[in-house]
Amino acid sequence: MKMAEGVLREIRALTGNSFCQVGTAELSSPALADACSRGGIDFSSLRFAVAIAAPFPAEVINQLRQGPSRTYLYHYRVVNAQLDRLMLEISSCLEEAGGQAFPIPSSQRTGNRFQSIFPHRTAARAAGLGWIGRSSNLIVPGRGPRIRLGTVLTNLPLPPGQVRENGCGDCQACREACPPGAIKGPAFEPGDPQEKRFDPQACNDYKNRVRDHFGKRVCGICLAVCPQGREELTITGRDNQHPPVPPEQKAQEDRRPD
Known about the structure:
The chain is an alpha+beta fold. It has one domain. Helices cover 38% and strands 12% of the residues. It is built from nine helices and six strands, in the order αβαβααβαβββαααα. It has helices at residues 2-16, 29-39, 58-62, 70-96, 120-126, 173-177, 200-214, 221-225, 247-255; strands at 21-26, 48-55, 101-104, 131-132, 138-139, 147-154. The strands form two sheets. Strands 1-2-6-3 form a four-stranded antiparallel sheet, sandwiched between helices. α1 packs antiparallel against α4 (70-96). It is globular and about 50 Å long.
C-alpha cells in the first residue's frame, strides 16, 4: 500500500500542471471481459486502472449549440494529444514501480465503429470521477460532460475510488436536444446494455448527414446543453439552437409518435 501511495503521488504530480482530474479503480470481471471481447486484446491481468479527465474549453463546446464547429474539432485533437502524452508518462511511472501498464488511446476504434478498444467511462466511473449520464457521456461534478477521458490499465494494485451516485435526477436536456433522437431517456444502470439508453446507429447516421453539408462528422449538442457544470463554468447564456435538420430527417421526425 505504501508503494501504491508513492506511485499515486507521482501520477498526481504528472497531471497537476494540466488541470486534469485523476482517479484509480479496480475493475470488475464483467468490465474486463467486455474489454477483452472488443479488440481481441487480453486485458484480464490488468485489473486496475488510472483514469484521467482532461478539461475541454467550455465556451468552445458551447459553440456546438449553434451548429457544427471547426474550432471544436481542432481542440478535440489537441486535448486528445495531451491525454495521450499524459498516459504515456503515467505508463512509464507504473512500469518504473514494477508494474505492467497499457495506455488506452484517447480515441481509437475497433473494427466496429461504435466501439473503442476500452470504454474510458467505465474506468472513470469506477474511479469516482463522475457518473454516466443518459447521453452515455461521463458527467463530472463542476464540469459536466465538458471533458475528454484517458485510461491506463495496470496490474499494480491501486486503491479504488468511490463510485458516485447518479446526479442527473429527472433532467432530460440531452434527450430533448438530440437531433436524431439517439438518446432514449433511461438513466444509466450498471449491467444494462448501452443500447437501452442510446442508439449509436442513429447518432452515427446523423453525423454522416452533417458531414454531407459541413465536411466533417461532428455534433456534440448533448455536451453543450447539459446543465451540470454550466453555472460553475460561467458559460454564456444562449438560445438552444440546433444545426439544420435535413428535409428527409425532418419528415421522419414529424412522423415519430409523441
